[in-house]
Amino acid sequence: MKILVTGAAGFIGYYVSKALINNGHEVVGIDNINDYYDINLKFDRLKELGIAKEDASIYNRKAINCTDDKLFSFVKLNLEDRENLPSLFQLEKFDVVCNLAAQAGVRYSLENPEAYVDSNLVGFLNLLECCRNFSIKHLVYASSSSVYGLNKKVPFSISDNVDQPISLYAATKKGNELMAHTYSHLFKIPTTGLRFFTVYGPWGRPDMAMFLFTDAIINDKAIKVFNHGKMERDFTYVEDIAEGVVRVLEKSTTERVQNNALYKLYNIGNNNSVKLIDFIQEIESNLNIKASKEMLPIQPGDVERTWANVDDLIRDYDYQPNTSIKEGVKSFIDWYKTYYNK
């Protein structure tokens, strides 16, 4: 298939693009390369996919046209761009779309709410309009475990109420689900939302726990442990996540259209909850360094525990996350030491 992957220079977008290419699909990636975190990490991910920094730095429609044997091409583009995004759809004639572009981060949404409205709501609407107007067969998009908000029941299930988000980031992701439902209902577009649970691994985001802890410990700085360490997360290795996303993208939606089951939501996680303290100990063990810990109260917007019930994804897509915390943490530490020459 010919697949558009938005957020292709991002953490999950990079892995999904790589997996799709390895399966023989033609992938066009877009990303705005914003400076929410180090843009060099984003350019280096694209370099791994065969895109030079100079080619990824400007909008160039000609550069994205996959007319040769190259299975991945890239264009720098905002989802909010109401002129060039439809032009891209018209030019490339995608079969399916995988939307992984978003302004990420729970805590940053307290400081810069406008960025979340622009990218996660306005940009998502623009993408839905393109899917509607250019006969896209399937839209798969990233939601988040953060939509569960104040939910106390674990493991989190798709059937749980998600009307109590506690961050604007979570509210925009719940908004995406509602918008997708509307377009599935009105315009018969098959849409699948995937609620991601704490993704970690090589090439990860510098603002996430795995990266922050490792960087601080190696550089002899105290790590900030919120809620005095009484946190649990469904840590999910990034390649397991990418495998699940690809399975959803590759499966035909014909049966869903026939059964009028156009709108779907799934949790995608490791199906297990790990104590934050145990996660930190695994990092310490791999680095052979004892961390200095600054115990702090819980941050606004944070939840104490996440745990994904992924039974539906296992049933419908044979999704089987199989990377242990021990394996995953070691893989990240090895990458970090190599990438930063530590």
UniProtKB/TrEMBL annotation:
SUPFAM superfamilies, sorted: NAD(P)-binding Rossmann-fold domains
Occurrences of domain NAD-dependent epimerase/dehydratase (ranges): 3-269
Gene3D superfamilies: NAD(P)-binding Rossmann-like Domain (3.40.50.720), UDP-galactose 4-epimerase, domain 1 (3.90.25.10)
Signal peptide: none
CDD domains given in the database record: UDP_GE_SDE_e
Sorted UniProt keywords: NAD
Full protein name: NAD-dependent epimerase
Protein species of origin: Pseudotamlana haliotis
